[in-house]
Amino acid sequence: MADTLIKADLSQSPYENDMIHNRWHPDIPMAVTVKPGDDFILECYDWTGGQIKNDDDAADVRDVDLSQVHFLSGPVGVEGAEPGDLLVVDLLDIGAFPQQQWGFNGFFSKQNGGGFLTEHFPLAQKSIWDFEGMFTKSRHIPGVRFAGLIHPGLIGCLPSHDLLAKWNKREQALIDTNPTRVPGLANPPYAPTAHMGRLKGDARDKAAAEGARTVPPREHGGNCDIKDLSRGSRIYFPVYVKGAGLSMGDLHFSQGDGEITFCGAIEMAGWAHLKVNLIKDGMAKYGIRNPIFKPSPIVPTYNDYLIFEGISVDEAGEQHYLDVHVAYRQACLNAIEYLKKFGYSGAQAYSILGTAPVQGHISGVVDVPNACATLFLPTQIFDFDITPNADGPTKFISGDIDMPIAPDRV
Amino acid sequence: MADTLIKADLSQSPYENDMIHNRWHPDIPMAVTVKPGDDFILECYDWTGGQIKNDDDAADVRDVDLSQVHFLSGPVGVEGAEPGDLLVVDLLDIGAFPQQQWGFNGFFSKQNGGGFLTEHFPLAQKSIWDFEGMFTKSRHIPGVRFAGLIHPGLIGCLPSHDLLAKWNKREQALIDTNPTRVPGLANPPYAPTAHMGRLKGDARDKAAAEGARTVPPREHGGNCDIKDLSRGSRIYFPVYVKGAGLSMGDLHFSQGDGEITFCGAIEMAGWAHLKVNLIKDGMAKYGIRNPIFKPSPIVPTYNDYLIFEGISVDEAGEQHYLDVHVAYRQACLNAIEYLKKFGYSGAQAYSILGTAPVQGHISGVVDVPNACATLFLPTQIFDFDITPNADGPTKFISGDIDMPIAPDRV
Amino acid sequence: MADTLIKADLSQSPYENDMIHNRWHPDIPMAVTVKPGDDFILECYDWTGGQIKNDDDAADVRDVDLSQVHFLSGPVGVEGAEPGDLLVVDLLDIGAFPQQQWGFNGFFSKQNGGGFLTEHFPLAQKSIWDFEGMFTKSRHIPGVRFAGLIHPGLIGCLPSHDLLAKWNKREQALIDTNPTRVPGLANPPYAPTAHMGRLKGDARDKAAAEGARTVPPREHGGNCDIKDLSRGSRIYFPVYVKGAGLSMGDLHFSQGDGEITFCGAIEMAGWAHLKVNLIKDGMAKYGIRNPIFKPSPIVPTYNDYLIFEGISVDEAGEQHYLDVHVAYRQACLNAIEYLKKFGYSGAQAYSILGTAPVQGHISGVVDVPNACATLFLPTQIFDFDITPNADGPTKFISGDIDMPIAPDRV
Amino acid sequence: MADTLIKADLSQSPYENDMIHNRWHPDIPMAVTVKPGDDFILECYDWTGGQIKNDDDAADVRDVDLSQVHFLSGPVGVEGAEPGDLLVVDLLDIGAFPQQQWGFNGFFSKQNGGGFLTEHFPLAQKSIWDFEGMFTKSRHIPGVRFAGLIHPGLIGCLPSHDLLAKWNKREQALIDTNPTRVPGLANPPYAPTAHMGRLKGDARDKAAAEGARTVPPREHGGNCDIKDLSRGSRIYFPVYVKGAGLSMGDLHFSQGDGEITFCGAIEMAGWAHLKVNLIKDGMAKYGIRNPIFKPSPIVPTYNDYLIFEGISVDEAGEQHYLDVHVAYRQACLNAIEYLKKFGYSGAQAYSILGTAPVQGHISGVVDVPNACATLFLPTQIFDFDITPNADGPTKFISGDIDMPIAPDRV
């Protein structure tokens, strides 16, 4: 078995583990170093570092400190890696810890994070998902069970100083357009809760003050939350610093396209078995700006779908110009209304869309003024038949179970 | 064999065929009437009504009259259909005409229609695709061949008067925000080129002046350009008028998600074999606003992909807030740069993305401020291996063939 | 559109069409000649030449003249083809005739042909399958509908004189072990009903007396009845005579692995669109004895199966040594018993296994003394759920419809 | 995490572990007891109990004591299970031990076990396969790597006394037809190496003398070696004794249909996570004689195949009557010849067919006198392109690496 190079002791705060960090900065020292061709295991905290518990109270979701996220394992230095190379990463396997066979999904309060449908679901809610081998189900959402499409939500290499500066500049410019918005348009550097790995002293403080937050995906990959970047896939990452500095975390047992619930997929702590290689000067050779990848040959084969359409006219009837975000929101809302006819609460339906392997497609993006987005809901994950028929839907779900909800503190 | 209820004589102008129309309006008389349970065949013009020719000159794409599109076959009245019902349509089969085994793809001039990447490809270009049974290839784009995922780009039922009024109002409001933009933000009713089917006289003139243009997808479906709504699928359409009034056209031999080239997919004339049924009061029973559908069990099984990521930072480096449209554009541009390394021109690469069964996924849409879109490029459609390797790409494509281009008229 | 090189007039006896033949012999003249790279269409009679009718009487199945089969279209000569080459054949498309949108399936009487389960179903029965675009269903077997996996049951090149002599010798040797068996162990040449295409006079009579029957698959391919050799696939055939001499027929709209009902798959007349190429000296280059092929990228995606096992202990409890034939028979009988619990008659269940895209796998073939065969029954072809549950099966099928049966003549 | 109810200490002989047994007999006491709805983990020895080593010498394969196999973990008693019930088993997950990330494949000597192609490969050979997360490759067979389709080769419930008697009787009758054959037609009970679990004293000796060997699959399932019965699948087993008595072992990391190499698949020690339930009186309700199952939604998605045909004419040219065993042997031999053209030794090619997820289909089984079998070889498992082309094959494999071979002892 490959060596476990980074361990995550879940009984310990990730801040006490110096092979963990929660900001992107080129000065973070490599936690470990490997050679091209090596395979090894990294253990990871869940993205919140243990803030969310396996219980029936959504207060922890409401009160989460989002300035702490995401806790990443790394950086892993790769010998010989130089800026301009491609770092080839095989995700050989990923799993939960034997002693922690569960994950969480939830919606943040609109006052603290929000989410894709925060106007419709403004309060914190959560669901707990138990793992049964390759499968998962939730005590808070009956009638649905599916195989995991396990993947890291967040993985990428350290940015260079130049790249970091570019990120901070463009994101601050966006914030400046509406600096008091709740939730904020972007998250600027925030030193108080920064965890800079082994970086200490003044160097740590300087880096903490400028280290990029881990929330958005960026050129290096990062928090892409791409469900298809799953165990078994091979990724080609741009390298920006000597040694590459690969970090990862935010493991998901399963997620729907868009990670629309934001908190998040089925979030879990766990481990990943990786193998690394290099394509020297690969960025120029292949014209690479963002990571590219080949998906896994082992993915759930759910292929019977019910597909919902959405167009870029919003809930208020307002016309948007080729706005796929609005269109996908409508497709999601349509699917939620549909599932409610079978007895689910809106929150339960929303959670299914955030956790199950649903696909979100950009179906049409040129037919002015309406973008068309489609949501592919796999029918085989339900215990019952959700196909329309002449008699209308049966309420298979009795409604006596719902997801915990936590009212905002006044 | 089922009866052909509407015929399309390609040697004749679609304006001379009164079972064709090119606007949406509830007053357009049913061209034919069928019963629930009937199956039948409709023939269709290509969406431009024959404006684009099988030749090596893109002038026809440059000079296309977009006020004429799309020529639709219908409306088909369904006995017993009433507002609030769902019209269940089985797309039993779709094909090209034996005597016209080709289709076209192209980019409009930015001066006349534009498209998804019009800033990068501002001039009219086209490619012609020959069909070989279930497969297609183009003399303008070597090295690529694939099976067709044949589908109607446009299909839906007539709107009610109320729904039509709502469309016109909201779209005009958008236009009013920037009425002189080129290309326009939306297309208002335009009577001179309206084809209102069998509607004649004053009634025709009134309807032509208010008939909705067929370009965007809307609540009824319409020009969704969803590649997965392919032959073999079953669609559930909202019904807004007595008799439903199903119309269709804009047949595609194949298309990538987004139809990014706008002109369009692989566009063709042809026929469709349909079967209709009703779910009475189905809109309320299932909470339906937009059509839903089940995809076909017969689709190309290309499943080996190279996947490109894009984030919502535009080509100029500007940060956009969770803008999937921008993110998908970046993913597409990334794929184009990549394919150029194998010898394709940018235009050829763009066309491949517009025509082949590529998937466009809304992968992440909550990680502020960046949306993440992914483009799945099937590797099995190429004659050569496009996977990255340590040696870098081989220029399999010599570059001596390119797509016809037509400079704008001065 | 490609030219139709061989036409099949279904109102005419195939014996009157000199581009048809029903025996394998190297002296049969080429009916047409094409060049490598050409694509073209061949029309085909159904394998019996029209003996089976679209009605509700199985007498035609009982009385079929099996000495006449199979009526093949060809041979097609390919310029430049020489013995030792591989003839590359693309099955670009295959379909039924517009005016004949149906096919038949049946069991022969044990007295005239028999079949895989002839001990259990000794009398002639048939079912008629109507085509609805890409789908089929039968008025004789309710509750089941599926997309066609359309393919030629029989396709291959003419044998050389040496190869023909080898066939006749080894098959006669088998017959000689039990010459009076009913049904016979093999079918020797039989001149009276031979159709030798354009071969006339003494040459015809000589060839008719030695022409191999078309029933079995052999080194050249021939009557392989491989459902996966479907439209869209590419086949590499050994060439034994100058010009190759490709012939084909026995079109199937759909078939299960094994073609266990023998009469046969869903049998139909129709057309095939082919393209040919050559790999010179390909047999030696690739060590080819039998055809090889790449399957189609367009096949029905039914992937939810209920799988039945069978071992090589026969119905009487007798132990056979690693006999896959016996094991597959048990798997089929197990599936039939299972389906009867839902209300099907045994004959209906048997027909489903013969016509739907079921897979038959050689799962274990070394664990002495029992071979293990598995039958994969796609669950998605049924209108109802056939998965086991704690309550036991529901009789969805009322039993008021059955397949026509024809008692043997006394 | 579920409890591990049976542990396998690989440093200990399985004979010392009384929760292991290697014969089928109803008197073997339950090793553990669970309730319907429970999930739990069983650890398993490899089928030989550690006789084969991770080295480069095939002497262990040559000298294996086959009277010892298979070492099974169990029996697991299920409360409430009675004869006639169906035991529903979910294979929630299966894996290798972290400290033993490898498996073996080999051919037995014809003098000691033999195998499917023992006439062509009469000497003992082996290959060692290293696991890299979900993937495997062998240092003895370059150029090939694939994802595991992990499954138990052997799983089933204890037979009743009556069923056991029937097995022994029919298998002895077969042996009696040629009692001196090498390898034997079947394996009769053999007490000296029997491991009867917790059964002790006279009861043990009596049961050991009549306990059925574990080699063949039988009515209860047993050694089916069905690759599709993989982790994630759900199996419905007939129950013959009170408490059911589920036992399992013979874990495979991957296997081709037929397990043609006999020693065997990629054989490994490991663990399985199971869940059990009951369908009371399920055998009668569903007409079940042999187990049925639903395959996993998580299987490798290799779907690009090169398919080889074989007919029931053997290597000597002799004609067999509808013998699928002979036909599949020809298909396998054809694939081996083909792969040799790319540089593989025959033994390497044979091993690939035995280990990779190849499919073996019973394609035609009625076209007298030839059965037709097809072997589906996935092309995506090779590092290079194995598709035929006009230039002929390239020898990608240099031939400097081969599998260890062990000459028979004289």
In words, what does this structure look like?
The structure is a homotetramer of 410-residue chains. Chain A has 410 residues and is α+β, with helices and mostly antiparallel strands. Chain A is built from six helices and 23 strands. Chain A has two domains: 4-294, Acetamidase/Formamidase-like domains (Jelly Rolls, Sandwich), CATH 2.60.120; 305-406, no CATH class. Chain A has helices at 59-62, 161-175, 201-210, 282-286, 324-340, 346-355; strands spanning 4-6, 20-21, 32-34, 39-44, 72-78, 86-95, 102-107, 124-132, 135-138, 141-147, 151-157, 217-218, 221-222, 234-238, 244-252, 263-267, 270-279, 292-294, 298-300, 305-311, 359-364, 372-378, 405-406. In chain A, a hairpin with a 2-residue loop joins strand 9 (135-138) and strand 10. In chain A, helix 5 packs across helix 6. Chain A is globular. At the A-B interface, helix 2, strand 12, helix 4, strand 18 and strand 20 of A face helix 2, strand 12, helix 4, strand 18 and strand 20 of B.
Strand content range of chain A = 25-35%
Q: What's the CATH first level of the largest domain in chain A?
A: Mainly Beta
Shape of chain A: globular
How many beta-strand elements of chain A? 23
Radius of gyration of chain A, whole Å: 21 Å
**Spatial gap, N to C terminus of chain A:** 52 Å
Instruction: Specify the helix fraction band of chain A.
Output: 10-25%
Largest interface in this structure: A-B, 100 and 100 residues
Contiguous uncertain segments of 5+ residues of chain A: none
CATH superfamily of the largest domain in chain A: Acetamidase/Formamidase-like domains
SS content category of chain A? alpha+beta
Quaternary assembly: homotetramer
- CATH architecture classification name of the largest domain in chain A: Sandwich
pLDDT average of chain A, as an integer? 97
Instruction: Spell out the helices and strands of chain A N to C.
Output: EEEEHEEEEEEEHHEEEEEEHEEEHHEEE
Largest sheet: number of strands, sense, barrel closure of chain A: 7 strands, mixed
| Count of separate DSSP helical elements of chain A | 6
Q: Give the count of structural domains of chain A.
A: 2
CATH topological fold name of the largest domain in chain A: Jelly Rolls
InterPro entries (chains A, B, C, D): FmdA_AmdA, FormamaseFmdA
Protein name (chains A, B, C, D): Acetamidase/formamidase family protein
Biased composition (Basic and acidic residues) (chains A, B, C, D): 199-208, 216-225
Region (Disordered) (chains A, B, C, D): 179-225
